[in-house]
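Continuing the batch. This is chain 6 of the set; chains 1 through 5 are on the previous pages. Same settings as before, nothing changed between runs. Recording input and output for traceability.
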Amino acid sequence: MEVLKKENERLRQLLEEALRAAKRQAAPFSRQKPKAHPQKPGRKAGRHYGRRSRRPLPDQVDEIVEVPLPDRCPRCGGGLEECETVSQFQTEIPEPRVERIEFRIHVGRCGHCRRRVQRRHPRQTSDALGSAASQLGPRALALATQLNKGLGLPYGKTATVLQQAFGLQVSRGGLCQAMARVASKAEPTYNALVEEIRRSPSVTPDETGWRVDGKLWWMWAFSTPQVTVYSIQPGRGFEQAALVLGADFQGFLVRDGWGIYRQFIHALHQTCLAHLLRRCREMLLVAGKGEAEFPRTVHTILQQALQLRDRRQQRQISEHGLAVARGKLEVRMDRSLQRRYRAPQNRRLANHLLREQGALFTFLRCPGLEATNWRAEQAIRPMVVTRKVWGGNRTSRGAQTQGILVSILQTCRQQLRPASSILQKLICAPQPKPLDLTVPTR
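Output for chain 6:
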């Protein structure tokens, strides 16, 4: 009876702490009590300073400004004699201004078929005339796309940045329509990225909630070292994942424990060990008497598997030694899963591990394969920030625009390509055509 009272009191304290954490204000806060002796902020002194760096001197100087001596000493008023001349460099952005370009388009008619004919300059973004003759230029559209889709600024704030920084007047509705036109030009390139994902030897998928017209949709991310594809869809099932990945995907699938990924029966699976380790740690925090052995054992086995991977990467173990050590880990995991557990949380973990048993140690058989789905988690993170800023999309067309443009921006970021020049090429293309954003060497 006394044991049950203590257990009840411990669980009550944990529940109160969890409820208090959920009601904390949105401002930055410390999750735990402050340290009694925190480290001194700022750089360390001496050899513990860290990596030293400074801003490099510019290769080209566009303007030289002479800063002469004052007539008198500012302290005592005495005369001054010049000793030397030294230089300080300052990198500045130019004075922003808006270029207003008029294209004098010569229009003719074919003498044979009587069809109307006009040429298009490479800097034009549209062939529209009449009431739609006033258009935004490719640089302005590319910058607005990066601000809205790449950095997550709402349309209103994007328009404010363009107006305050460059004096460019544009409405939120005009930006929304312009983004849709950019996405229509970029759709063939997006489709090419989807095909690249399907051909990739290893893909890391993940998904998170999204809002479209106030309803729950899902933002999917499929990532490789060089390409990332996003897709906003109304469901979280196998059908939605297969629309991007392909139902017959035959590469490595490094994913979390969501059950629909196991339906890719042609793929080779690796489940995320970070999710399992986190789950074991959370179970240990609330485990009662006799309930901590199983999650502790699983945690130990998975940690030893990661250490074995590190030893292989550092060439501290032979292939034969790796196979023997991996077999021992698999036997230990099998024995742990063959037992019956009374605690419900332990039974749930054991059932999940039984379903994922064949995907726990794939990374130890395939050198270079990731053991966690960190790549997709990193790809999802900017979308989570955007969702918190402005919630989602109002229409399915807006969701499609979002998925196309953020896929191109994220892929350019991964490949260290200038996204602005890529977007300008897409915008100025007379007809939508795919740009090659694949890396030639695998």
